Amino acid sequence: MVGLPALMDEFRARIGAESVTDWITVDKVMNDVFCHLARDFQPIYTDSRWCAEHSPFGAPIVHPSLLLAMEVWFIRPLGFPSETTEYSTAFHYGFNYVEWRQPVRVGEPLRACVTVRAVEERQPGEYLMTHTVAVEVRRGREPAVEYESCGLFLPPENAGRRAVLPGGTR
Amino acid sequence: MNSHSIDVTDDVMMLESLAARVGRPLGTSQWRIVSQLEADIHSSLMGDYDPMHDDPSWGERVGLGGAVATGSFVLDLLAAFLREYGLPTTSTERLLWYPVRLGKIRLPAPLPIGHRFRDHCDLIAVERDPADRYIVTTRHVVEIEGSERPYITVSSFVSAYTVMPEVT
Predict the structure, then answer these.
(1) B54 and B44 in one domain?
(2) Radius of gyration (Cα) for chain A, nearest Å?
(3) Tens digits of per-residue pLDDT, A100-133?
(4) What is the ipTM of this complex?
(5) What residue ranges define each of the domains in chain A, with the CATH number in brackets?
(6) Any idea which of A46-60, A123-137, B65-79, B107-121 has the lowest mean pLDDT?
């Protein structure tokens, strides 16, 4: 039986259990493109020569916001519902907190530990799922970044209720 | 006297002068848009292919009126917003800037691709911590043009400045 309630039941059963991604890296191309999108292209993220001379980290670091934007990259291979399907639309509802504790260098192996914290049915057929993401690097004893994120799952026929402008968003 | 000591003094003066603006609006950004091209690049980068962001016809069908931006897209712009208000968020050999913490963030309304939005920012606090860093706290509400519901609210954004040791 596939459907939003069944999917949410499955995640309710996973509350408290940690899922861990493979070790991956953010390469220079990915980081540079992201810096452009973020209107934040600057040497500490992008310029190896500058970093060797001036940065306390000695090498370019991953843009801090990229580690948030990568949430879908982390959770989708772990089976978390984050995309639109025939029975579900997923909206990012928000973050409860984000903490950046140490920088991650470009090309440095990192992985994410993802844990479901709560699944609530806010209205009949509409669910809020809360999970934490802890991004780890091998040299650190504590996560480099940690955040708690909430996803709102609605049946597709209810998605239009989120629209902000009369007649949809146009 | 070398050039580094002059520049550090300027940076410290700028940070000290922020104290006078605490509790007041720091600024409102220019209107911006997220283009479909930017949304598509973002999706490719994150492997987040989703009709919600990439397929306007899907958005029409479900009543969203078109494609909408990923929730995190505007969060990516926080450093750029602060720069617009005169806070240097580009690290230099003298002054290191980095984000520390975000408080509660909510996304009450989806942002239509191509629709104008802008940030409203208040300066909540500027403090010196025991490590002699300047800790700056701001609050943000990102408005969608023509919508009473904002795209995003950021209850607190804490970032830090470390004045680098003087190099001679």
Answers:
(1) yes
(2) 18
(3) 999 999 999 999 999 999 999 998 889 999 999 9
(4) 0.90
(5) 4-27+62-162 (3.10.129.10)
(6) B65-79
Rounded distance, CA A31 to CA B132, Å? 30
A100: nearest CB among B62, B99, B104: B99
Task: Say if B20 falls within a structural domain.
Answer: yes
Largest CA distance in chain A: 59
pLDDT at residue A168 in the model: 45
> Quick check: helix, strand or coil at residue A149?
strand
Residues 6+ apart with CB under 8 A from B44: none
Q: Are strands A126-137 and B134-144 parallel, antiparallel or unpaired?
A: unpaired
- Ramachandran assignment for B131, one of left (phi > 0), alpha (psi -120 to 50 degrees), beta (any other): alpha
pLDDT value at B127 more than 90: yes
pLDDT value of position B122: 98
Token digits of residue A170: 């146009």
pLDDT at B63: 81
Where residue B157 sits, what CATH number does that domain have? 3.10.129.10
* Residues B43 and B109 placed together within one structural domain of the fold: no
Interface test with B, best of A97, A169, A170 (most B CBs within 10 A): A169
Q: Domain of residue B62: give its range.
A: 35-68
- Interchain contact, B66 vs A169, CB within 8 Å: yes
The candidate with the shortest Cα–Cα distance to A15, out of A70, A73, A80, is A80
Count A/B contacts: CB-CB distance under 8 Å. Answer: 159
Half-sphere exposure (CA, 13 Å, Cβ side) for A42?
A: 21
B107 vs A91: CB contact, 8 Å cut-off? Answer: yes
What is the rounded end-to-end Cα distance, in angstroms, of chain B?
9
